[in-house]
């Protein structure tokens, strides 16, 4: 007898995500549904506005990878208008991107994903002296993992628990058998969870130096970057480099060490050894290092064939809405898509928690569309980024991946797992932090002879423009597509990483990466589905990004047929 | 502008013009107070007392530190509606006090989807438990606008499939105080910009209780934590402005305290991003700065541990803490000029109107002066 498990809200993510799975009598998942339960309509709001405001508005798609949309939207307009921005502007944008990655991935691993790996309750029974010795196993110079520090963390959290109020730690799945760290390892990771709260503030300040603030920086404009005074200030430049060093130190001595520790502890845990079931991967080239040189390569890998990586053809991208709460006859290319809301609500049925409204898997069940490349679902994200560069023979990436595999004793196949996805994010952070300094040096050299940061854009209202931009957001490949007519936005579409990964099944019955990652997973206790959450978090979901609309084709807003309770 | 009398006349004329515009709020402040049984006299006494407290010196962090011993653990329930999580991200950046001491020492964070360990059914249990156990005592923070079109069905949260609208109304019932964190929760934000396809509204428009609005996209970490700490320290709401924003944070215009104000007064303007003036730190008014129309403490407090703020980074203020700014202040890199703004209504005092009126005239005068000065620069 199969049972339905409903998980809503998926917490520790950006936005509103609902996952449902069906388990058989052995608690093995045979079906999965991924749904976003919020619709905002940013792209319809963009219509008729000046393209110069695009960056500021689309940035509000997401407050986590806040800078990614800002940059991608701005560059889509620049692409449409045929603008080449000055080299200094490219470098500044790249430094801000470096700052974002160093921030975003630390926050993701420790504060969003971390509690899926770390059992806080177990940490309370650890021996701090022993834990300090354990920490030395994973790095020569542990950070926030000396005996005194660990004891202080433990006492602080114990005191908190003794008040009887667990606050944000209450009612979680502590004690689940798929937690594999020893009490000592849990204590080390808990200490890093708290230390990371401090370090991420410094990483955010890095972006704010050239961006004005973080989240939602405000220094990009169509044609360049505005923070020219900061760029020309030796004090500001040094401030960035100093903060960069502090955060890099944490990345190497804590983040990297903790992933090695997790690879050892969870290396035999069945629930994290699968989870990469759509073996198609896509990434775009990004991180300007010097003029014309990128840190990561672009490409598409189909069916896990690393030898057969090919160039991305933007024409082959289309979005299917057959199971999304929109109406359309066939998959549509982002330049030509429509989005007509068609909400059909939930269906009541029995679940492990009793009768509940549930997703209608046979019909429509999500506000996320399903992007396809050449008709196939594709995974995007740090793992895809590294695999594409690895397949291209990118030396920096090949060396970093091989070194991690050697260090953990894991085979290449270990990359194609939930554990591999989480490790890839860490490796990407290390590479970005270390190699990103080349951009910094290139900027210092360039400003000796060139102080330009901006070229004035020009829009001819009598002309029509079409353009797009593709970048790597922390969650994977992001593309924005724009049409400009009469000097204003005619049409806008964002195809975002979480849409690629979280979309529902398409008209051909092909399921996306989230849903595929869960099939075959065995749950210890279906009423406490920690394994599901751990796998979904490994993608770093960002739902606000993935929910968007574009063109109503003249349909009046009052005519939407939307019923909250289904038909 | 040679006499105070002339200034007074300008302000009066401006008020008269504004009085002709449709009011933004359904009820005036006076009517609202009457509804809540507050007499004018009570209100004046209360205002005087709270204003006295608010005269405590900035930076606010010192105040927070001194009063830490007085603080009780206050249950905090933080709900996410139609949003981008930028406000939570801003909260996570807090440094005075930082987030972990906020959680361990000052508040009891009962529910916060971005930070809590529990998920799904168990997360929803936490929410229901907190709403019941701490009824009448908890502080409710809301991030994001409330979609109201189609009975709120553009947002559902939790296994039981409740709409955001239902959840907000229920949670507001038992709240000791409600804080709308950010421009979305305060005024609808980006999803409420024209044509507002989801009928997104600020929290105060869908609940029948007073709401503190923290405008800003996002508000700085100091304005969020400062407001939480105020409630923890004093057990009551701070003095608010006409849009229910705390006066201690939103009492002055960005323009008033701007580091580039001297350039404005001298008629020195950035004409184009990246030009000589941009490198020298000239005023950004002509490339679209909305500082003269925006109430916030960005210039004094800045963001990210005082690291920077948009104007320091060479981009004008976009007015993000004001209601409806996505429509009223676009296109963002062009000056608004003398266009009438929502920033005043019939309840505003004459002095403020005089000051704002003078500023708009001042901007015009500087713009003119600068146009004449341009050939000389070239």
UniProtKB/TrEMBL annotation, chain B:
What is this enzyme's class at the first EC digit? oxidoreductase
One Pfam family, short name: Oxidored_q6
The record places domain NADH:ubiquinone oxidoreductase-like 20kDa subunit at 84-230
Q: Which family does it belong to?
A: Belongs to the [NiFe]/[NiFeSe] hydrogenase small subunit family.
Q: Which residues form the Cytochrome-c3 hydrogenase C-terminal domain?
A: 250-332
Assembly and interaction partners? Heterodimer of a large and a small subunit.
Cofactor requirements of the protein: [3Fe-4S] cluster; [4Fe-4S] cluster
The cross-references to PROSITE patterns, in alphabetical order and at most eight, read: TAT
Read off the Gene3D superfamilies from this record. Answer: Cytochrome-c3 hydrogenase, C-terminal domain, NADH:ubiquinone oxidoreductase-like, 20kDa subunit
Reaction(s) catalyzed by this protein?
H2 + A = AH2
Keyword Iron-sulfur belongs to the record: yes
Superkingdom of origin organism: Bacteria
InterPro entries from the entry? Cytochrome-c3_hydrogenase_C, NADH_UbQ_OxRdtase-like_20kDa, NiFe-Hase_small_C_sf, NiFe_Hase_small_N_sf, NiFe_hydrogenase_ssu, TAT_signal, TAT_signal_bac_arc
Q: Where in the cell is it found?
A: Cell envelope
Q: What is this protein called?
A: hydrogenase (acceptor)
Give the record's keywords alphabetically: 3Fe-4S, 4Fe-4S, Iron, Iron-sulfur, Metal-binding, Oxidoreductase, Signal
Name the encoding gene, please. Answer: hyaA
Q: What is its EC number?
A: 1.12.99.6
> Which species is listed as the source?
Shewanella mangrovisoli
């Amino acid at each position: 007898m199969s049972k339905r498990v409903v998980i809503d809200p998926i917490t520790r993510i950006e936005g509103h995500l609902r996952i449902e799975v069906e388990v058989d009598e052995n608690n093995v998942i045979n079906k999965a549904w991924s749904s976003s339960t919020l619709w905002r309509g940013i792209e319809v709001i963009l219509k008729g506005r000046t393209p110069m405001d695009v960056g500021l508005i689309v940035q509000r798609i997401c407050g986590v990878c806040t800078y990614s949309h800002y940059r991608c939207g701005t560059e889509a307009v620049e692409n449409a208008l045929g603008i080449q921005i000055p080299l200094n502007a490219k470098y500044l944008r790249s430094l801000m991107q470096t700052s974002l990655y160093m921030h975003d991935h630390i926050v993701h691993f420790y504060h969003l994903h971390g509690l899926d790996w770390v059992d806080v309750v177990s940490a309370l029974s650890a021996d701090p002296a022993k834990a300090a010795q354990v920490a030395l196993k994973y790095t020569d110079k542990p950070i926030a993992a000396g005996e005194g520090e660990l004891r202080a963390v433990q006492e602080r959290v114990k005191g908190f628990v003794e008040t009887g109020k667990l606050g944000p730690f209450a009612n979680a799945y502590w004690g689940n058998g798929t937690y594999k760290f020893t009490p000592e390892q849990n204590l080390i990771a808990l200490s890093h969870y708290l230390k990371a709260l401090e370090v991420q503030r410094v990483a955010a300040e890095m972006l704010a130096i050239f961006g004005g603030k973080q989240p939602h920086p405000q220094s990009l404009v169509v044609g360049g970057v505005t923070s020219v005074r900061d760029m020309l200030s030796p004090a500001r430049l040094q401030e960035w480099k100093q903060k960069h060093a502090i955060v890099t130190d944490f990345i190497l001595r804590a983040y990297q060490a903790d992933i090695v520790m997790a690879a050892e502890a969870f290396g035999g845990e069945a629930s994290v050894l699968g989870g990469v079931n759509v073996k198609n991967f896509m990434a775009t080239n990004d991180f300007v290092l010097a003029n014309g040189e990128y840190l990561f390569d672009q490409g598409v890998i189909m069916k896990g064939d690393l030898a057969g990586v090919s160039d991305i053809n933007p024409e082959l991208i289309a979005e299917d809405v057959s199971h999304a709460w929109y109406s359309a006859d066939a998959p549509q290319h982002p330049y030509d898509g429509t989005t007509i809301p068609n909400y059909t609500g939930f269906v009541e049925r029995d679940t492990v928690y009793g009768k509940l409204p549930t997703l209608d898997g046979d019909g429509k069940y999500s506000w996320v569309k399903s992007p396809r490349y050449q008709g196939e679902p594709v995974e995007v994200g740090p793992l895809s980024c590294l695999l594409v560069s690895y397949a291209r023979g990118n030396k920096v990436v090949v060396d970093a991946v091989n070194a991690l595999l050697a260090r953990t004793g894991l085979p290449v196949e270990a990359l194609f797992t939930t554990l591999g996805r989480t490790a890839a994010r860490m490796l990407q952070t290390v590479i970005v932090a270390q190699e990103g300094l080349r951009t910094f040096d290139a900027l210092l050299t360039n400003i000796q002879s060139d102080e330009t940061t901006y070229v004035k854009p020009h829009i001819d209202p009598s002309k029509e423009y079409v353009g797009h931009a593709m970048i790597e957001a922390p969650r994977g490949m992001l593309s924005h597509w724009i049409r400009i007519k009469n000097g204003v936005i005619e049409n806008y579409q964002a195809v975002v990483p979480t849409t690629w990964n979280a979309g529902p099944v398409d008209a051909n019955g092909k399921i996306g990466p989230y849903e595929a990652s869960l099939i075959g997973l065995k749950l210890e206790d279906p009423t406490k589905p920690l394994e599901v959450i751990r796998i979904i978090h490994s993608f770093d979901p960002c739902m606000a990004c993935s929910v968007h609309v574009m063109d109503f084709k003249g349909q009046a807003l009052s005519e939407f047929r939307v019923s909250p309770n289904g038909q | 502008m040679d006499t105070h009398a002339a200034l007074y006349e300008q302000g009066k004329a401006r008020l008269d013009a504004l009085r002709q515009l449709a009011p933004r709020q359904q009820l005036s402040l006076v009517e609202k107070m009457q509804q809540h049984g507050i007499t004018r006299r009570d209100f004046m006494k209360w205002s005087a007392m709270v204003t006295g407290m608010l005269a405590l010196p900035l930076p606010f962090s010192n105040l927070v530190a001194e009063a830490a011993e007085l603080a009780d653990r206050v249950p905090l329930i933080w709900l996410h509606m139609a949003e981008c999580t930028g406000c939570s991200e801003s909260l996570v950046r807090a440094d005075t006090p930082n987030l972990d001491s906020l959680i361990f020492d000052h508040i009891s964070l009962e529910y916060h989807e971005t930070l809590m360990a529990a998920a799904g059914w168990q997360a929803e249990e936490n929410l229901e438990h907190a709403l019941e156990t701490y009824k009448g005592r908890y502080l409710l923070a809301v991030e994001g606008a409330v979609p109201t079109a189609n009975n709120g069905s553009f947002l559902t949260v939790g296994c039981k499939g409740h709409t955001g609208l239902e959840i907000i109304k229920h949670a507001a019932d038992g709240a000791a105080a409600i804080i709308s964190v950010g421009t979305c929760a305060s005024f609808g934000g980006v999803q409420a910009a024209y044509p507002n396809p989801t009928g997104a509204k600020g929290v105060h428009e869908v609940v029948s209780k007073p709401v503190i609005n923290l405008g800003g996209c996002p508000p700085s970490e100091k304005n969020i934590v400062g407001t939480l700490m105020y409630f923890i320290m004093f057990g009551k709401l701070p003095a608010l402005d006409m849009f229910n924003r705390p006066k201690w944070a939103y009492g002055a215009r960005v323009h008033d305290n701007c580091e580039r104000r001297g350039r404005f007064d001298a008629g020195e303007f950035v004409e184009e991003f990246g030009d000589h003036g941009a490198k020298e730190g000239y005023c950004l008014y002509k490339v679209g700065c909305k500082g003269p129309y925006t109430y916030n403490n960005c210039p004094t407090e800045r963001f990210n541990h005082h690291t920077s703020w948009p104007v320091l980074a060479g981009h004008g203020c976009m007015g993000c803490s004001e209601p409806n700014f996505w429509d009223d202040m676009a296109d963002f890199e062009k000056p608004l000029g003398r266009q009438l703004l929502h920033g005043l209504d019939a309840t505003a005092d004459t002095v403020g109107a005089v000051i704002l009126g003078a500023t708009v005239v001042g901007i015009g005068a500087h713009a003119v002066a600068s146009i004449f000065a341009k050939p000389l620069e070239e």
